[in-house]
Structures are given as C-alpha cells and as structure tokens.
From TrEMBL:
It is found in: Cell inner membrane. The keyword Oxidoreductase does not apply. GO terms for cellular component: plasma membrane. It comes from Vreelandella arcis. This is Tungstate transport system ATP-binding protein. Belongs to the ABC transporter superfamily. The lineage of its organism: Bacteria, Pseudomonadati, Pseudomonadota, Gammaproteobacteria, Oceanospirillales. Residues 14-234 form the ABC transporter domain. GO terms for molecular function: ATP binding; ATP hydrolysis activity.
Length: 240
C-alpha cells in the first residue's frame, strides 16, 4: 500500500437494483433503485428514522438486502466508512494509524512516516502521542478520517459523521471530506443538517419513511424539490 495519491482511474458505478430491507416482517426500506457514479458528493437526507443509515449500510455491503441486489459496474473499489461514533483502539492517535498500516502489510519502516503524513493532513500532528480515546469528539472524528485516508479509498461513506460535533469541529470534518474529494474520492454521506447538505452536496438522495422520494442535483432539490415531503423538509417542517 502506498501513501494516498490522486485516484486517476474512473470509479465504478454502484447500482442498487430494487433493494429492499425488512425486519420481522416490517418493511424498513421499500424497493429502491439508485445509481451512484462519478466522483460526486452525494448527500443522503431525510428525517429521523427515514432509512438513511440503512440505505448507506446496504450500499457499503454491511447489510444484506432482503430483496434486490447491490452491484458494482466493474471492479469493486476500495471503500471506507466513517461512523457517528468512531471506534478507536486504546492506543495513541499515531498507533491507531500504524496499526491499520500493519494490518495492510505496509513494511514497518514506512508506517510511521505514512501515519504522520495522515495526522498532518488532518491537523492532528500535535496530538500524535495522545491516547486516542481521550481526544475530543471532533478530534476523534478527524482521526477516523485520517485512518480512512490511509486506505486511499475510491469511495468514502460517512454516516452522520458530524451530528454530535460543535460548529468548529463540523467545519474541520467538512474540510477533511473536501480533502478526500479533491484527491478523487466519491463521497456518500448521510446528514439531516440542511446547511451542511447545501455546503457539500453535488446531488441529494431524499428518503422519507423508508422510501426514496428524490435523487436530484443539489440545486434542483433545494430550489424545487419534487415531493411534498421534500418541500416540507427543506422548509424545516417536522415530518415523521
Ligand atoms: N439492522 C437493522 N435491523 C433492524 N432494524 C433496523 C436496522 N437498522 C435500522 N433499523 C430500523 O430502520 C429504521 C430506519 O433506521 P435508520 O437508522 O436507517 O434511520 P435514519 O434515517 O438513519 O435515522 P436517524 O436520522 O435517526 O439516524 C429505524 O426504525 C431503525 O430502528
């Protein structure tokens, strides 16, 4: 594994074909078809319980659909996922990163330099030797992003990655997302923060009640959503 560089090859399309998910006979995601392509920032939006995380976990392969299929149109690219609460090892920030490099069989002599580069990229150099679990929420999230960056993913999934952070930490995570995107990574991110979606989205997938109601360019979604639920959502009305 090399240090992250720009991803030059086109990223395979990810196609969800009539994907549904049921639990104990209850439909949590109605049959959904969706194609994610190019090097775009796709934001999955919708109110609490809409099925955003479900859709993302199905897309990333963490969940198996009840029906339908998820397939890559071409070779499956390297993917990484960042969660709302990152799971970090009881070690220093630096060691959390060198551990990942060891798992990926990077020669020992190269691990520290690569890990330090990742820490530097995400503004964490000064915290290299601090135990990861005492870092603030925003710092932990940036460490999770640095760890993902080491994998040089072509596709990065983020599930409510900023929902428990303050505005400065949100900005730092959004900057980190832009760093990934600038190096050629496709971004797929869930949020119910409208302002964040407006800042980041190239296109928006809007879910309500386990149904995909819209997948549109961000400008279209924010100026002229085609569903009444989408309109209510962007007007800040509560919908359940
Ligand atoms: N693996 C699972 N097994 C069973 N039920 C699930 C599973 N994952 C999610 N659910 C249920 O599916 C529904 C949608 O959950 P999901 O987490 O996708 O919503 P969300 O849109 O991400 O909501 P929030 O904004 O609150 O995080 C919820 O009722 C949840 O309890």
């Amino acid at each position: 594994m090399n240090a992250p560089t720009s991803i030059l090859a086109p990223i395979a399309d990810l196609r969800l074909e009539n994907v549904s998910f049921q639990h104990r006979g209850q439909s949590l995601l109605a049959p959904t078809s969706l194609t994610l392509s190019g090097c775009r920032r796709t934001i999955i939006m919708g109110p609490n319980g809409a099925g955003k995380s479900l859709l993302m976990r199905l897309a990333h392969g963490l969940l198996t659909p009840t029906s339908g299929r998820v397939r890559w149109q071409g070779s499956e690219p390297v993917q990484a996922m960042v969660f709302q609460r990152p799971v970090l090892l009881r070690r220093s920030a630096l060691d959390n990163l060198t551990y990942v490099l060891a798992i990926h069989k990077v020669p020992r002599a190269r691990r520290k330099a690569q890990a330090m580069l990742a820490l530097d990229t995400f503004g964490l150099t000064a915290l290299a030797h601090r135990p990861a679990r005492v870092l603030s929420g925003g710092e932990q999230q940036r460490l999770a992003l640095a760890r993902a960056w080491l994998l040089n993913p072509a596709v990065l999934f983020l599930d409510e990655a900023t929902s428990s952070l303050d505005p400065a930490a949100i900005k730092a995570v959004e900057d980190a997302v832009m760093t990934f995107h600038a190096s050629g990574t496709r971004i797929v991110m869930t949020t119910h923060d409208l302002h964040q979606a407006k800042r980041l989205a190239d296109d928006v997938v809007f879910l309500h009640n386990g149904q995909l109601l819209e997948h549109s360019p961000a400008d279209t979604f924010f100026s002229a959503p085609c569903s009444s639920q989408g309109r209510a959502f962007i007007q800040g009305e509560l919908i359940w």
